[in-house]
Amino acid sequence: MSNDTIFDKILKKQIPAAVVYEDDQVLAFRDITPQAPTHVLVIPKLRWERFAHLADAQAADVGVFFQRVATVATSLGLDGSGYRVVINNGRDGQQTVEYLHAHILGGRALTWPPG
Length: 115
Ligand code: DGP
What we know:
Layout: H1 6-11, E1 19-22, E2 26-30, E3 38-44, H2 59-75, E4 83-86, E5 102-106
Antiparallel strand pairs: 1-2, 2-3, 3-5, 4-5
2'-deoxyguanosine-5'-monophosphate binds at residues 6, 17, 29-33, 41, 88, 94-97.
């Protein structure tokens, strides 16, 4: 039995995704249930289950991940209008996939506070 999440399977190309960016560090693909005109998920190839686990990670690896999130947002053309980066952590954070991922949301004016 595999414990792979849906994102492990996307990373291994076992299931399809609309990939917008990939390099040796990250994979970015469009969210299947977009909450904004642009809604892209960025996952690190180094596997962390959730944001909280970054506390024990190498700072350089964490830095690369966040740099790539910014690079992907720029490549999506969102710098001018702005965007939001969201990382849901654990139950109350509404994390549904236990593989760390950053949401990039843009293309409309987002409301605040979040629900
Ligand atoms: P979160 O609640 O932060 O764990 O967000 C998980 C996101 O993953 C959610 O917005 C929907 C998205 N998602 C779930 N399954 C798939 C899938 O099979 N393909 C893609 N592209 N996105 C998915």
